[in-house]
Amino acid sequence: MIVDAHQHFWNLEKVAYPWLGPQHGVINRTFEAPELEPLLKGAGVDRTVIVQAMDSSEDTAYMLETTARHDWVAGVVGWVPLDRPREAREQLKEYARNPVFKGVRHLIHEEADPDWVVRPEVIEGLKVLASFGLTFDVVAVFPNHLKHVPTLAKLIPDLKMAIDHLAKPPIASKGWEPWASQLAEAASYPNVCAKVSGLNTAADPDNWTAGDLKPYIDFAKKHFTADRLMFGSDWPVANLAGNYQRVFEATREAVADYGEEERQAIFGRTAIRFYRLAL
After folding, report:
1. Tens-place pLDDT, residues 107-166
2. Can you say how many angstroms the Cα of residue 245 is from the centroid of all Cα atoms in its chain?
3. CATH code of the domain covering residue 247
4. Which 8-state DSSP code applies to residue 215?
């Protein structure tokens, strides 16, 4: 069972996405399930997890509507106002009734305050999230957010977290520190996983190869092990530096020297366990 643990949909006529504009070129349009479905079949991907693309209830409702029409969508990572814990609790009571709703994400990299995620009220909201047994996807865009993951892991040890896109390592500049030290520290907490996703858009957009991604994936495997890593395409954002097939094939190439059990973990088993996907 191959799972894409990180992809998006957005419909610009149904939901507002203020962050998205002409500066985003080829992804500044609507992307919906019928466009992705043949790409999944071409790559041999069986199931996906849709991840929120806007901090709004409208975006979450749109994703849940999509799952009702496409059974290959196995999970939804939506949004609730974590900085308003009481309101978040009421929304989670409703969402938790839907078995496809698996967790929450907030576009923390869009917040003016780089320390937003460790504000007291947000910590309280994350504790509420943990009480529902739901997960938290961390948009830990390096260097502002990865350093906060250990803080969250210590304060809320029962909150399962996934670091999106390996926190966007400095691949284009072939940099390492302090990204490497911060990722290794985050990996020391057993409630933290990471996604092998979005790496092509952290590399040279025109000339990246699997070889550019591999050292960063290898480093993540060393510290997380394959059982806490999961593949994600980050489609359609991936189209900024390639396409679905290229990202999928490059990731497969980068881990080709791993053991069969490790590859199965990264391409499905970890996501199934982390998101409790009913397959």
Report:
1. 999 999 999 999 999 999 999 999 999 999 999 887 789 999 999 999 999 999 999 999
2. 18
3. 3.20.20.140
4. H
Report which DSSP code applies to 98. S
pLDDT at 204: 96
Residues in the chain, how many? Answer: 279
Give the closest residue to 162 by CA, choosing from 144, 179, 149. Answer: 149
Domain total in the chain: 1
Q: Distance between CA 100 and CA 231 in Å, rounded?
A: 19
| Token pair in block for residue 247 | 């990202």
User: Residue 121 is which amino acid?
Assistant: E
Q: How far is CA 74 from the centre of its chain?
A: 14
115 found inside a domain = yes
pLDDT digits (tens, 9 = 90+) for 82-114: 999 999 999 999 999 999 999 999 999 999 999
* Mean residue pLDDT across the chain: 97
More confident residue, 279 or 63: 63
Give the per-residue pLDDT at 279.
83
Domain span at 211: 3-274
Considering the domain boundaries, does residue 204 fall inside one?
Answer: yes
279: in domain: no
Q: What angle do CA 277, 95, 11 make, to 5 degrees?
A: 85
Q: What are phi and psi of 137, to 5 degrees?
A: -90, 125
DSSP-assigned beta bridge partners for residue 77: 51, 103
In this structure, is residue 182 part of a structural domain?
yes
